[in-house]
Design a protein that fits this description.
alpha+beta; Glutaredoxin; seven-stranded mixed beta sheet; two-stranded antiparallel ribbon; 24% strand
């Protein structure tokens, strides 16, 4: 009897976590079937302070988008952060965002995932730059010109959301030099 009740709770919980798979807090993040290549699609996310970010409309100056797809990829993101935070400090027109990018799920699942991240990230700056995107990952990647989710992807975006430069993987000095030049060329 206990096993049946436990199974029922698991199934009900799974249903709650998947209800409303294309909406997040009343927002439809469906990416057009033919997004503009080389441009961030129109999507909305919320940072870990629960502030809304509309892409590409809220982009200003140059933006470095660090896109990760799994929690373990945070280790690769962390190789870039000291450099990117310093660059953001040196270039006031630059904004750095971390975009954990995951498939759509129900509101309860999204609130749970955001809550887990919020609990694990105490730094206010990190909370402000972390914006989870619940989107069709393949379509999002195709729009930005990313070919894989097996490693993190980085892009320099202009204020219209056009990709000006991109790379993938862990920090390297040559990639950092190229990224910085792309940022300066974008401004």
């Amino acid at each position: 009897m206990i096993a049946i009740v436990a199974l029922a709770l698991v199934l009900i919980g799974a249903r709650v976590l998947t209800v409303g798979t294309s909406r997040y807090r009343g927002l439809d993040n469906a990416i057009p079937t033919e997004p503009v290549p080389g441009r961030v699609p129109t999507v909305t996310g919320f940072d870990l302070h629960r502030n809304r970010l509309d892409l590409p409309g809220d982009l200003r100056g140059a933006t470095v988008a660090v896109v990760a797809y799994t929690q373990r990829q945070q280790l690769d993101v962390d190789t870039w952060l000291p450099y990117l935070i310093d660059l953001e400090r040196r270039v006031p027109e630059l904004t750095v965002y971390e975009f954990p990018t995951v498939p759509p799920m129900g509101v309860a699942g999204q609130e749970y995932l955001d809550g887990v991240m919020r609990a694990g990230i105490r730094d206010p700056g990190a909370r402000s730059r972390t914006v989870t995107l619940y989107v069709d990952v393949a379509a999002f990647n195709a729009a930005l010109g990313f070919s894989s989710t097996s490693s993190i992807n980085l892009a320099v975006l202009d204020d219209a959301g056009a990709v000006r430069w991109s790379t993938s993987g862990r920090y390297s000095d040559p990639a950092a030099t190229a990224l910085e030049q792309a940022v300066l060329d974008t401004l």
